[in-house]
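Box 3.1 — From sequence to structure: DUF6602 domain-containing protein
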Amino acid sequence: MIKSHLEAVEEQLLVTSRIPANSGHSLHKGTPREAFIKEFLINHLSETVSIGTGEIVDCDSKPNEQRNQFDIVIYKKNYPKLDFGGGVSGFLAESVVATIEVKSTLDNPGLIQSINAARNAKILKQNLNRSFSTGWLPPSIMNYVVAYDGPAQMKTVFGWLGNHHIQNGIAIEDTKERTSKKSPSLDGVFVLGKGFIKFDNSPTTNVPAEIRAQHPDINWSITDIERGSLLMLFLSLLEATNNIQGAWLNPLPYLQNVRFHNIAWA
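Predicted structure (token representation):
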């Protein structure tokens, strides 16, 4: 049922995306397509998370410094956020589950921009008090790209990603446990109607057990498939949000430079 439903939604997204294609400005093509993905997420993800647009801050972030703006931020609703106006927010790193960059057509420069933004998100500090957890907890903020069009084969996209990693010395950390391994940049690239690339660190994997037994050092799965990219994106986000965690924000690091004067005691 879920497979059939999400394949139908993927086809609907591709058809609906043709409407803004008649626009004469790239912004007028991209913005509606972002809205289509946001609507899908709002209608399908758990109500424990919410969907927004903006930037991510941590306890070391400073006013007016350069930060990445993310098309879509999936964040926990029980954490605060900063309202910058106009539907743009500043999300505390502790609250962010995942980000999604939406591309009308995926190309090498666009992928590199998303890789760099993902790396910036992954180095942000998260100050949490923890007591317990159950279910799979992502080892870091998850960062995804969703595109409506792109190369005919996903190995082309993986070549772009791999070349950028090699040229910039971006390496995968050496962790024996697969599900605790952190991607050094993107966690997934999904091109609707074409296929997907996924960093293979979550419990749900499309790598057959016999292949993993032969190649235990596999880090990425590369799949060409006409329908199924949206399904894998949904499953990835489901895993990232389908957990129970006894954790709460430690606000003190955000106040490290705050000083109150003229204090009286009684």
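Summary of the box: The first helix runs from residue 2 to 16.
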